[in-house]
Amino acid sequence: MFERIALVGIGLIGSSLARVIRREGLARHIAIATRSKSTLKRAEELGLGDSYTTEAKEAARDADLII
User: Fold this and answer.
1) Rounded distance, CA 41 to CA 32, Å?
2) Of the candidates 40, 56, 41, which has an alpha carbon nearest to the alpha carbon of residue 7?
3) How far is residue 52 CA from its own chain's centroid?
4) Would the N or C end of the chain have less CB density within 10 A of its end CB?
5) Could you tell me if 33 and 51 are in contact, meaning their C-beta atoms sit under 8 angstroms apart?
6) CATH number assigned to the domain covering 2-66
7) Which sequence spans correspond to the domains of the chain?
């Protein structure tokens, strides 16, 4: 298991990965970054991650795995 996974981009592939990571308990924390504020808001509404940002650098900070 990873402590922190950062997903940069949360389109079809990123959101699918977030769901699997959450379902399988592969990370304690999922950080999500995307450029679109509306996409970020939707990801948060769906509960895909634990933290949300428009800055990839911020999501990647202290991540064990960056996708």
Assistant:
1) 11
2) 56
3) 7
4) N
5) no
6) 3.40.50.720
7) 2-66
Which residue(s) pair with 30 in the sheet? 5
The answer to whether the CB of 29 falls within 8 A of the CB of 4 is yes
Residue 25's pLDDT is what? 98
Structure tokens at 58: 């911020």
Q: How many C-beta atoms surround the C-beta of residue 42 within 10 A?
A: 14
Mention every residue, 6+ apart, whose C-beta is less than 8 A from residue 27. 1, 2, 3, 4, 5, 21, 64, 65
> pLDDT tens digit string along 42-66?
999 999 999 999 999 999 999 999 9
In the prediction, which pLDDT does 46 show? 97
Place of tokens 């399988």: 24
